[in-house]
Amino acid sequence: MAFNENQKHQIPKTHPRYLSLKYRHKIIKGMKNLVVAEAGLIAHGRGECFDYILGEETNAPAKKAIKAAVASLILAERPVISVNGNVAALVSKDLVILGNLLGIPLEINLFYQKKGRIKAIKKTLQSAGAKVIYGVDSKKMVELEGLESNRRKVELIANADLVMVPLEDGDRTEALKKLNKNVIAIDLNPLSRTALWANITIVDNITRTIPEMIKIAQDLIKSEKIQLIEIVDNFNNKQNIQDSLDLIIQYIENQKELAFQNHKR
Ligand code: PTJ
Question: Block means of pLDDT (10 residues each) for the chain, length 265 residues?
C-alpha cells in the first residue's frame, strides 16, 4: 500500500510500524496542502512519543473516559466538536460520522492562522461528508473572553455548554472552563494543561478514540437519561488521569524487563 506516489514501494503493509507511518504521512500530506500547520508535525511527534509509552492501545482508563465523554455529549444541550488541522488530517471521516450520529456540529478552530488554511480544512471535511461546517465565516465569529491566541475567534463555541477539544495547545481549555463550559479533551499527554483542566480527559490517540466513540455512541444513544447521568457522575477525571500515568509507569517497568528479550540478536 502506498501513501503517496513517491513512496509507492517504500512502506509495505507488512512493515511493523505500518499504522504509525500511515498517520505520519497523512500529517505530512496535510501540511503540504495547508490543512496542518508546520508545528502540527511537531505536535504529532510528541503524541507519537506518548502513544509509544502507553503501549499504542486504547487502555482501560481511556475506555472509561470515552464512555463518560459520549454520555456527556448526548446529555449536553449545545455541544460542539472543535476541529484543528491535525484532527482534520487524521480523522475527518470518523469525526463526520460521530457528529452526524449524535447531531453535534463541527467547528473549525485554529491556533495558527495562515491564509488558505480554513478553506483547506473545510474542503477536507466536506470531502469526508460534512454538510455544515462552522468557524469558516469571519463575519459570524465572536471573541472568547480571557484568551489572546487565534483560538479566541469562535462561532457556535461561544454559546456551547460542552466543547470537545481534540489535540490542543494549552490555554483554551482553561478559558472555556472559566466561561462555565464543560470540556472534553483528547490528548495523549496526560500532563498537558489541556488534559489537567478538562472535565473529561481521554488519554489516547485520536485515530483510535473517534472510532471507539462511534461504537460506544451507537450503544449509548439507546440509553435512558438517568443511565447517562450515572455514567458521567461516576467518572472521576483526576483518578482516571492518575490511572493513565500508572499505566505508563507500568509499561516502562515491563519494557525494562522485556525489551531485550523481544529483540534478542
Ligand atoms: O491546526 P492548529 O493551527 O489549530 O494547530 C494544531 C496544533 C496541534 C499544532 C496546536 O494545537 C499545538 O501546537 O498543539 P500542542 O501544544 O503541540 O498540543 C497538542 C497535544 O496533542 C500534545 O499534548 C500531543 O501530545 C497531543 N497529540 C498529538 N498527536 C495526538 C495527540 N493526542 C491524541 N492523538 C494524537 N494523534
Answer: 52 81 95 97 97 95 98 98 98 98 98 96 98 96 92 96 92 92 97 96 98 98 98 98 97 88 65
Amino acid at 136: V
Q: Please give the Cα distance from 158 to 135 (Å, whole number).
A: 11
Which of 38, 48, 81, 86 to mutate to test ligand 1, by most ligand atoms within 8 A of the CB atom?
A: 86
The Å distance, Cα 86 to ligand 1 centre, comes to: 7
Cell of 121: 480544512
Q: How many CA atoms lie within 13 A of 116 on its CB side?
A: 8
- Residue 262 alpha carbon to ligand 1 centre in Å: 31
User: In terms of residues, how long is the chain?
Assistant: 265
CA of 170 to the centre of ligand 1 (A): 10
